[in-house]
Amino acid sequence: MIHVTEETRSSGPVAAERAGRAGGKASPGVSDAPHPGGRGVRSGAGFGRSRVHRLLLLAGALGLLVLLCALSIAVGSRQIPLGQVLAVLTGPHDTQIGRIVWDVRVPRTLLGVLAGSALGVAGAVMQALTRNPLADPGLLGVSAGAAFALMLAVGVMGMTSLYGYVWFAFAGALAASVVVYVVGGLGRGGQTPVKLALAGIAVTFMLESVTRGVSLIDPQVLNRYRYWASGSLAGQETATILQVLPFLVGGAILAVSITPALNNIALGDDVAAALGRRLGRIRMRGALSVMLLTGAAVAVAGPIVFIGLVVPHAVRALSGPDQRWLIPLTALLAPCLLLAADIIGRVVARPQEIDVGIVAAFLGAPFFIALIRRRRLAEL
Fold first, then answer.
1. Where does it mainly reside (predicted)?
2. Average pLDDT over the chain, rounded to whole?
3. Distance, CA of 145 to CA of 168 (rounded, Å)
4. How is 346-376 classified by DSSP, letter by letter?
5. Residue 374 has what pLDDT?
6. Does pTM top 0.85 for this prediction?
7. How many CA atoms lie within 13 A of 131 on its CB side?
8. How far does the chain reach from its first CA to its final CA, in angstroms?
9. If DSSP codes are grouped into helix, strand and coil, which group holds residue 226?
10. Which of the two residues, 110 and 161, has the higher pLDDT score?
11. Those residues with Cβ within 8 angstroms of residue 134's Cβ, 6 or more apart along the chain or in another chain
12. Which segment, 32-46, 142-156, 301-315, 360-374, is predicted with the most confidence on average?
């Protein structure tokens, strides 16, 4: 959606198999999996990357995030000289430019960082729990479920408080996840990455259709839904963003707490159970983490797709499959992609702008097509 902005108005490890494809045969006894203590065996498939290499990646990702945050504050659909932006950041901001920077761009940047990290970490956790390379909150119906429940709360029940309808977003995200995994497991062969992706797309389209139908009841709700459904970082106040911060922090803590167990699950359920992991409890905590992260992000930014799909794959290629490093790196790089998409959307259609959800889909769709066209879609 193009609109006038606020500024202008004011089942088992695959390491051995991959080694066999690369070198002709798999070396016995060498795996890419962590031992029961959670530390990875130093093989050449990702866990062998040095700590210094990964620390440099973390430092580089943090530096890139800081740079994009600065660009997000300095660049917008309204051109403001950099000197004036710096002046209102360090001095009084009761001018028109000060209100644009502090009331529009700073909250927008903060929301981009929080929503991007939430969607990226949620996607990484989903991919690790299911060993499905196509897992993403937007593709597997989680975002659509949260959006559907949120629209029911706002459009039908008349809720206006964020603390009132955010719980509906959590419930919708959980219900949609259950439906997708049940539908994706039907038929011969059980759950496969492609079947889950197809089930997620089908559930997403169904929920989006019903959501649009519900929004037609009230023209005012329809206008709000049309703006929100495309995915946007604009129009939220800092107070509103801070209201969802506890949910995002709770989801992130849950995700980090299960990273050693996710390394064990990469070996397969049987091996993880033999290593002492309680799979039911781990999956429960992982599902709760995804629900909190996705529900809170969707409640304030709308359904944004491909962030949770693209970034974990890119991070995995850079740092290896060790979840103890993959999750923090994803939390830093996912908002970089979202902020970059938001900046592009602001400048390509000046003085109007393109919503970040549209730009993110444009950037992520080629990656998704390339991923599903791979000759063999292996489990993670």
1. membrane
2. 81
3. 9
4. HHTTTTEEE-HHHHHHHHHHHHHHHHHTSS-
5. 65
6. no
7. 18
8. 35
9. helix
10. 110
11. 140, 193, 194, 196, 197, 309, 368, 371, 372, 377
12. 301-315
Closest CA to 177 of 246, 122, 133, 254: 122
Q: Looking up tokens 């927008």, which residue turns up? A: 108
19-31 per-position pLDDT tens digit? 344 444 333 333 3
Query: CA 230 to CA 304: how far, in whole Å?
Result: 8
Q: Which CATH superfamily does the domain covering 109-380 fall into?
A: ABC transporter involved in vitamin B12 uptake, BtuC (1.10.3470.10)
The helix/strand/coil state of 40 is strand
- What residues does each domain of the chain span? 109-380
Nearest by Cα to 221 from 169, 150, 286, 167: 150
Cβ–Cβ under 8 Å, residues 36 and 275:
yes
Record the tokens describing residue 235, joined without a space.
């129009």
**Which residue is it, tokens 């430019």?**
97
User: Cα separation of 112 and 70, whole Å?
Assistant: 12
| Cβ-Cβ contacts under 8 Å for 83 (sequence gap 6 or more) | none
**Sheet strands (E) in the chain:** 2-4, 352-354
What φ, ψ does residue 320 adopt, rounded to 5°? 95, 175
φ and ψ of 309, to 5 deg: -95, -50
Separation of alpha carbons 197 and 181, rounded Å: 10
